Each structure stands twice: as C-alpha cells, then as structure tokens.
Amino acid sequence: MVVKTFMDMDQDSEDEKQQYLPLALHLASEFFLRNPNKDVRLLVACCLADIFRIYAPEAPYTSHDKLKDIFLFITRQLKGLEDTKSPQFNRYFYLLENLAWVKSYNICFELEDCNEIFIQLFRTLFSVINNSHNKKVQMHMLDLMSSIIMEGDGVTQELLDSILINLIPAHKNLNKQSFDLAKVLLKRTVQTIEACIANFFNQVLVLGRSSVSDLSEHVFDLIQELFAIDPHLLLSVMPQLEFKLKSNDGEERLAVVRLLAKLFGSKDSDLATQNRPLWQCFLGRFNDIHVPVRLESVKFASHCLMNHPDLAKDLTEYLKVRSHDPEEAIRHDVIVTIITAAKRDLALVNDQLLGFVRERTLDKRWRVRKEAMMGLAQLYKKYCLHGEAGKEAAEKVSWIKDKLLHIYYQNSIDDKLLVEKIFAQYLVPHNLETEERMKCLYYLYASLDPNAVKALNEMWKCQNMLRSHVRELLDLHKQPTSEANCSAMFGKLMTIAKNLPDPGKAQDFVKKFNQVLGDDEKLRSQLELLISPTCSCKQADVCVREIARKLANPKQPTNPFLEMVKFLLERIAPVHIDSEAISALVKLMNKSIEGTADDEEEGVSPDTAIRSGLELLKVLSFTHPTSFHSAETYESLLQCLRMEDDKVAEAAIQIFRNTGHKIETDLPQIRSTLIPILHQKAKRGTPHQAKQAVHCIHAIFTNKEVQLAQIFEPLSRSLNADVPEQLITPLVSLGHISMLAPDQFASPMKSVVANFIVKDLLMNDRSTGEKNGKLWSPDEEVSPEVLAKVQAIKLLVRWLLGMKNNQSKSANSTLRLLSAMLVSEGDLTEQKRISKSDMSRLRLAAGSAIMKLAQEPCYHEIITPEQFQLCALVINDECYQVRQIFAQKLHKALVKLLLPLEYMAIFALCAKDPVKERRAHARQCLLKNIGIRREYIKQNPMATEKLLSLLPEYVVPYMIHLLAHDPDFTRSQDVDQLRDIKECLWFMLEVLMTKNENNSHAFMKKMAENIKLTKDAQSPDESKTNEKLYTVCDVALCVINSKSALCNAESPKDPVLPVKFFTQPEKDFCNDKSYISEETRVLLLTGKPKPAGVLGAVNKPLSATGRKPYVRSAGAETGSNINVNSELNPSTGNRPREQSSETAETGVSENEENPVRIISVTPVKNIDPVKNKEINSDQSAQGNISSDRGKKRTVTAAGAENIQQKTDEKADESGPPAPSKPRRGRRPKSESQGNATKNDDINKPLSKGRKRAAVSQESPGGLEAGNAKAPKLQDPAKKAAPTERQIDLQS
User: This protein's superkingdom (predicted)?
Assistant: First the structure.
C-alpha cells in the first residue's frame, strides 16, 4: 500500500508531501536498508526512488552519509534486473525507469565521495545487462549513466575504467551486451568524455604512468575499439601515437604498428586522409630496423589495398623496397599481400605491384619464388582462363603465362618442376575435357612469346627424355642380372634422380623404387603402360593412382618416398597429349584454315593460329609421334602442304618426317599424294622446305635411293650460276642428299663441286654489291648471289660430312678454300665487287664451316693450327652479328660435346669484345660448358679414359698457344699487349679457378710450366715464335700464382700436352728464364686495369697463315650501321699521344666499314699475288705467283672533320650499340707498339710470307684449289718491309 501511495503521488501535492515526510525518513532507516528480505528491499527501493521523484529537486534527506547509504542500497537492488523471468522484474524495471527519468543520482554530485556510488552503479548496470533485455532497459541504463557523465564535473579514472573495461576483448567476448552498452554510452557522451580519455592515454602513452589504471596494459586494444566506436573519441590521442611510432623500443613500435594497421586498414576508416602526418609516419615503419615491425607493416598492406584502393599509390613505393628486403619472410609476405588483394579484385593492384611479384619469381629463396609463381598462376587461371573480370583484366595479366614459362630456363630443378605443375594445373588444366583442353593449349601456344615457346618445347623435351630414361630402366629389368647390367642400371637411376627435387635424397628413393619394381611385376607392367606411346590421358591417370595406391602406407601419413615417386610419375605421365588430343588439335587447325574458328575472339589472327598450330604439332611430333598416325590427321597435314604460307608447309613436312614411318605400309593413299609434293618442295620450295623434304623422303620411304636420285639428277644438271636466285633451293637439296646418301651420291657430287660449286660459283663475282657502308644487312637485303655462295659452302661441308673420310683429299682442299675466304675477309676473288655486309656473311659461313667440319674426327685431325687460329679469330670479327652468331654456334656445339676441347679456348678471345653483353654471354657459355664437362665426367666412369678431350682444365694449353699466335701480339715485351693477353687468360682462368677441384690450380700451373719445356709445333725453329709462347706461359703463371694460394701444391698428375701444338720436351732442356720483367709483372697485377679496348682487325697477319697486305686510302667511304658514344672508349686517355703515327681513337661505330683515322705512313712495297691463277690438277708443285702490289699512299688529313662521330646520332637497326671499334673486332695497337714494331722490323725480312692460296682445278672435289687462295711461302729476298697493321685503314 505504501508503494502504491508513493507511486501515485506527484510533485505538486504539497500537503501529501508534508504528510508523508516522516514515512519517507522512516523508510531510510537501517531496518529497511538492511532488511534480510529481498522483496522488502525491492519495495523500499521503489519507494525511495519515488520519494526522490516527489521531493525533487530537494531530497528529504539532509545527511550526506544517509544519502550515500540510500543510493548504494538502491544500486544493489538494481542487480535484480539481471533475471528478466523473475516475477519481480517489472518492479526492478520500474525502479530503473524512475531513477533514469528523474536523474535521481545527480543528487550525489553534492557528496564528496559520490564517485564510489557512480562506480558501483556503472559496474552493476554493465554486469546485469544481457541479451534478454529489451531496448527500453538499455535505453534507461544509458539515460541514467549518460546523465551522470554529462552533468558531472568530470569523469574520474576509476569511473572511466568501469566503462572501458567492457571494451577489452576478453570482456567483450564474455558479455557482448555490456560491450554494446558501453559503445552506445561513449557515442552519446563523446563531447564530454573525450577529454577524460585523452588524459588517460596521455598519462600512459606519453608520461609512461601505467599505474594510473589497471587497464594500462590494454591501451592499444582500447584505442582500436574506441576508434571503431567513434574516431572523435581519439582526436587528442592520435598525435600521441605518432610519438610512440618513433619510440626506441622495438616491441613498443611493433604494438603501435599493429594497432595503427587495424585503424588504417578497417573498411570505413578515413584516418589516412584525416590525419596525413600520422599516415606518413606509419608508412615510415615499412623501413623500420626491427624485422617484426616491417613484417607487420607488410601484412597490413593487404587489408589496406582491399579496403582502401585509393591508398595503393602511397603503399606502392614502400612495398617495392620491401620486395627487396633482406628478410625472406618479408619478401614472402609482400607477395602474399599483393596476390591476396589481386585475387579479391584485380583493379585493387596496379601494374607496378604486379611487377614486384614478377621480380620475385627470380628470388634467391625457393619459398619466395614458389609463392610468387603460384600466386601469378592463380591470377592467370582466374582472369585469363575463366575470364572472371572481362577482357580488360585478362589483358592486364596476359604476360603471366610468358613469365611463368620463362622460369623454366632457371637451373634449379625445383623451379622446373613447379613450372610443369603450374602448366598442368593452371595454364592448361589437365582435368578439362579433351576438346576444351586442346583449345586452351592451341590458343595459349599461339599467344606465347618466342622465349616462352622455347621453354614450353624444352619442358616437353625434358619430360620425354625422362620417359625414355624410365623406359630404358624397365628394359634393363628384363635383361639377366650381370655386373654390366647393374652398372648401367645404377647410372640410369642417378640420371633419373637428377630430374627430381633434392637429387641427394632422391637417389635413395629412386633406388628403393627400383628395388620395388624388381620385386613387383604388376607394378612394372603399370609403369610400362604409363610410358608406352599408346597410353591415353585417361589411362595415365588410372596408372598413376594405381601405382600410388600400391606404394602408399596407411600407417605412415607423411611418406617422403611416395611423394618422390609421385613427382616422377607426374613428370612422365602423358596428362595432356594422346591420339584423341592430337585429333582435336588438328580439327582446331582445320577450323582456323576454313575461317570458322574463334581465333579473333581469342585475340589471335587466323594466320598466326594456323602457323602456331603447325609449330605446336611439329613439337609434339617429336615427343608423341605415335599419336599422329591416322588418315584424318595426315589429310589435314597434306592440306597444309598446299598452303601458300612457307612456314606452315615447312612444319607440315617436318611432322611427316617425324611421324610417317608407317605411312608406306598402312596408308598407301597418303603416300601416293605425298611423294610428288615432297619432290616439288625439294626442287622448287624454300631452302628450309627443301631440307625437310629430302630428310622426309629419306626417313619414311624404303625406296629412298630412287626417290632421291629423281631429285638429284635434274637438279645437278640444271645448276646455273647466272641465275643465283634459282640456285639456293637446289644447293640445299643437293647438299642434304649427298650427306644422307653418300655411298650413292658422293662421286657424282664431286664433279658438281669441282666444276660448278668452286669454279663457277665461289670463284666468280657476277654482280656488284651495294656499297652502303654497312657491315651487316637483314636477310631480305642480302644479294641472291651471296646467299647462293653461303649455301655452296654449306653444301661442301654436308658433302664431306656424308663421306666421313678424306681419301680423296677433298677435305684438305675445302679447308684451304675456307681459310682463303677468311684471309681475304670474305672477298675470295679480290675484285672488290662484293659489299661489306656480304663479306661478313661469307666470313661467318667460312668460319662456321670449319667449325662444323671439326666436329667430325677424321676432319678435325687435318685442320692445321693456322686454320684453327683463323677460325678462332672470327669471334673477334669487326661485325657484331658475325661475332654473335659464331659464338652461339660455337657454344651450341661445345655444349653437346661435339667439338674438340681446343675450340673452347676460342672463348678466351671474347675478353677483347667491346660489347659488355657479348663478354657476359661468353662467360655464361664458359660456365655452362665447364659445368657440363665436369658433370659428364662425374656421371660417366668411362670418361676418365678421355680426360684429355673432356677435362676443362686441359683447355689451358690450347688457350696459351692460341694467344701466342694472336695477330695483335707482335712484341713480347709490350706492356699493353701483355695486358691484353692477361685479360684473355683471366677471362678463361677465372671460370676454371672458381673451385679448386682435385687440386686443379696446381694442375694448370704445371701445364704452363711444362709448355715452357717444349717448343711451338707450328714453328719449332723460330725463336721469336717460341719466345712469344713462353711469354704467354709466364703471364699465365703470373695470373695463377696471384689468384690462388693453392697452386703451389703438388699437381695430382702430370699433364699431357697436345702434340699438334707442342713438340715433345727435349732431354736435359731446362727453361727457367722469366720472359716478363718484374716491373711488367707488377704492372700486370697491380696497375690500373686497362679499359675494355676496341677490337682490332682480325685480318692482321698470323705468323704462318699468309695474309696479303691490304690498304685503302682515306677517301674510302665511311658508313656505319651502329653509332656509339665516343666516351665509351676511354683508352685514349691512358697512353701518351704522340704526333707521329698513333691511331686516333675516336668514336667509331660498331659495324663501321672504314673508320677514318689521321695517320702518317711511310710508303712501302707490298706483294700482290696473281689473281685467279689456274693450275692444272696434275701439277705437283705450285709456282711462286707473287708480284708487287705497288706502294702505300700517305694518308692525308683530308676528311678529318669526319673523325668524330656524333654521339647523339641515331643508331642503325642492323646491330646493337657498342663501344667504338676498328675493323674485324680487334683492338688497335698502341702507338708505342706500332713504332717499336716498325723500328724493329723495318730492316729485316718477314719470317713467314703472306701466302696466297692458289686453288687448282681439283679443289675441293679433287681440285687442288682452283681459284681459291692457299697459303704459300714466298722468297724473303723479294719481300718489302713489313706493313704495320696498326696504321692500315682497314685495321
């Protein structure tokens, strides 16, 4: 009744208020406030709340202590709000509502210790709120608390803690409703409470007073939550965070970075734009010295990119730096960050960010490389293969396929295996249906760049090779056990292990797998089916799963052995290509031919699709020839043969050649149609088609002799040198026919060679070349006559390679002819009608021909040292393209172990190349060649018997001999020349001395010492020649001693020197003389390194090869196809200039025909060999056919204004820019060298005359050098003073 009375009373009832005042005071007595009955306490609390309402604004209680007791009592009763199902809940709600509406607690502001009451109230309300409460309860609680905060004088730290503690993650997870209540309360009171919050964080963050609050250790969690609630709560706190970011404590910086990462990265945050100084300070932590801080910064970038694309520009530069971070984990996380954002939406990442991932595909750490490669593969599949974001996105990442395949060029087997996995799962997913899979492959192949195509071809080649290794291993299992069989099997297992990850561990697993194969016949049969040519993709999948099931061990969840076997099976299983797949590819190509394919939609032109499709089929014809054997496939290929596109027809012929072994027996109709087409291509097709047609006939027909004869006879009769454009294809066909069927065509070809190839074609210049001054021209600009001469040289080589013997001495004549061509710089007739670019082509053809013949042992034996040296000097040719192509051919033959070891010495001359890229390429070639030879020796025990031809260190004597006969090395005491020799020696020795395997340093030193005990076999009686040889040996010893402290050890074995180049040491002969002075030795080792000089002329005289003196006046035209900055040639500043005869070292272009130089020359007599002198074949001796050439004219300074080449002149397209260089790619000799040479040699006869190679009518096909030039000694008495090569305008 009392409760009801107070509830019904209002503030206006003054009489009632006075009447019930005693009752009100009585209800506040201890009896009621401490009553044990819960319900009594509740009713009393309700009455007291009403009393405060009725008597407001003044309370009837005047004692502060009594007021405190009353409000603490009421606060305790509010705990009853917790149970919403209680019968008394409505009364509790009434109590709360009354208190909130009247703001009764505001009375407490007058009390000194009101804070205790408020803290208790806040804690009570936050503890009782739960999810069963409705919005009214929450609203009244908020009203009650917000009034206390907003109307009070301030919020104490304890009261603030009672609010903030609900934001801590631990409390937040326990009571989500209390968190929500605190969140809304803070939002409502932000203007009032912000200053209190700022003071709290200032105390903790800036002043470091963690004792001010129990929440000090949770400041960063609180800041994050407060920022999410309302950033305005932290307006004064953010500058304090900037201060903390610069703390000296790494862990503290890390905590702040973690916090700010969440603040900046949250989806709706605009903190970065609102607080730029803090943002910039935060970005600076990307470069923090503390690794975890950098790592945390990088991890943040992913969320930032996804939630705030507008900040990508700010992040890009910092991510670029971190993508090169020394810490692997940070580089890894940069990739994860970018890829994660790109997978969400490609528009979130710019091209620069994707470029960072691209760079990391070549990271030094496998984990980083793998992440980058897999990330890019996933992007390609999503946006290119599935086209999830349209054509624009697909175009943006279209480069990924090329880049991923380029990685197959890396040496690491892990990289190669991952590329194969990516290709099978992402580029061309193997689980697609055959038609869809082949369409994917068809258009992928058509859109790849040339290097990616090569990589993909190499991948299939490696997989096919591994299949063949496994096939050979299975064949060994079928043979009876023997020691030879076990040895062969071991070698095969080691080879297979090299093709798997971690070859060291793989060896043990492969041995175990081999043992399982030997014991389990069913497993062997499954493996045989897997690698059989007829295995389909579906069968391969079944076989792989079956083999894996048999090898699996249920008790062993992680089975490294099984994983390794799976790697092997994945590499050898034909998951993409089978007969059905080839058929699908052919149908796609037919649609492209008919114009009904989706070529344009796929971004490929029909012509490109057809050509690439044929190239793809051509590659697959090597690896899966059996899959092509169907009439439908061959009919389509015949259709391609009739197309006008030469490349398409050529590829089709090659496919027939690779796959058509059963055409004659199984498909007679195809055979009858194919034969006339092949004949036509061999006679009138392009050179490449002719070659393939001849090889195709030889490969697939049983009556090949008849077929080839039907081509040979009409072609050999119709050769006409007057129509050179019609000669090229016949020469190609005849050359390949004579190589493939030497028994049948060697003799008929001999007369063709003697009467037509040499006499009519090579020894005649019927047309005059274009004098454009260029040293190289594109293929389409080369004259037909020169193309015919190049093919004629190739025909000679193919004819000899077919015979493989030198019984008729044709090889000797051919080698003399080729040497004469090199001596004459490509102008064999010396009529000066041929252009410089055409001469370059012929020099390249001659040098390549000698190198090709050297690959056949019977011809290698007859190649003289002089001819070898001429061939070697092609790598220093004046024309950049000649040097480049020759070096590539040399490397290709050496890598396949086709060329003798002495040819590797040629790479030492590359130290003289003025183009940095060429030198770098040569060094890489050396590294690969040396590595391959050492690996071959390790893998093949029998190779130890051939160490002289395999061991890389044995290249040293060949190199020393070659450098001793370098035309630029004329004076054995000239420091500049010796520096050149030292650079060449070190170019080779640096690679050889990388490791001291088997005490190789001492072995090389021993070789150089032993050479000093011999004589030069090329000129054993010439003291000057031997002196130069010994000088080079001393330079080599000087280099070896200075670079290795291990060279003084005992050599493991006594080296064997090649007798072709060195005589046997004489008994009791001791040569302990030092051929370089101590001063020279110091200059070579400690003096400033000589700048990479400009290559000089290869046409300087070899000591025994015979070269005619040749000079042109200054009036000769000066043209260039590559212009260079003269500053690139710093050699001019290293030696004192004198006015007499020094060659002016100015800017000269890479392939300049006649670099103009101001020189002064003393007129001297020269020898002019008689041109085109024919000698009968029965003559046993050659006459002396020399005559005076006349005198050199003094070169005036006319045209000197043309010496300086403008450095900003645009380079011609025919060659890359390079430092200045004179003719034939060799350095010019210094003035001191030139003057000294002149003074020493002017009054003495030349020891070895410059001989002309006169060719008799039997050379090379029985000719003794018809009109070619052969070396011939001349009478020293008839010679004029020698010509200084360094002052020749052609130098």
Answer: Eukaryota
Residue 658 reports pLDDT greater than 50: yes
Neighbours of 1228 (CB within 10 A): 30
Encoded tokens for 1014: 């011999």
**Whole-number Å distance between alpha carbons of 639 and 648:** 10
| Distance separating alpha carbons of residues 423 and 379, to the nearest angstrom | 13
**CA distances (Å), 1261 to each of 273, 283, 712, 844, 1269, in order?**
86, 78, 17, 22, 15
- C-alpha distances in Å from residue 413, one per residue of 407, 496, 664, 861: 11, 12, 42, 39
Torsions phi, psi of 1152, nearest 5?
Answer: -75, 140
Question: Is the separation of the CB atoms in 364 and 382 below 8 Å?
Answer: no
pLDDT tens column, 1116-1153 = 333 333 333 333 333 333 333 333 333 333 333 444 44
Strand partners, 1167: 1188
Rounded to whole angstroms, what are the CA distances from 1133 to 496, 1084, 1093, 1094?
A: 57, 18, 12, 14
CA–centroid distance for 17 within its chain: 95
Burial of 977 (0-12, 13-18, 19+ CB in 10 A): buried
CA-CA-CA-CA dihedral for 1252, 1253, 1254, 1257, to nearest 10: -170
Q: What is the pTM of this model?
A: 0.71
Residue carrying the six token digits 């130089």: 1157
Q: Which residue has the tokens 């005198």?
A: 1191
DSSP state of 1153: S
Task: Provide the b/e sequence for 849-884 (b: ≥16 CB within 10 Å).
Answer: bbbbbbbbeebbeebbbbbbbbbbbbbbbbbbbbbb
Residues 1139-1169, buried b or exposed e (16+ Cβ, 10 A)?
A: eebbbbbbbbbbbbbbbbbbbebeebbbbbb
Report whether 886 contacts 874 (CB < 8 A).
Answer: yes
> Higher model confidence: residue 921 or residue 1047?
921
Q: What is the DSSP string of 146-183?
A: HHHHHHSS---HHHHHHHHGGGSHHHHHH-HHHHHHHH
Residues 807, 747: Cα–Cα separation, whole Å? 12
- Compute the distance between CA of residue 610 and CA of residue 630 in angstroms, rounded to an integer: 20
- Distance CA(791)–CA(987), nearest Å, equals 35
Q: 1122: alpha, beta or left, given left = phi > 0 and alpha = psi -120 to 50?
A: beta
